[in-house]
Design a protein that fits this description.
Archaellum component FlaC
Amino acid sequence: MAEVTNDLIYEVLKSMQHDLGSVKAEIRDVKGELQAIRTHMTGLGQDISNIYQIIGRHDDRLGRIETRLGLLEPAH
């Protein structure tokens, strides 16, 4: 078995430090990608909300048109 020396420990620690730096950089990249996904999902949620509002307005207009044409009874 190889003798454990301070130089050997130092080399292993240097290698671990380099690997840890790489992991930190990759985690930063993943965090950036997650933030982009969150931003995109927020935009999609707002788009869906806008679509529901537009559909609601069209539904109201359609109801008024149907009432005018006598297709529905007016609400009392």
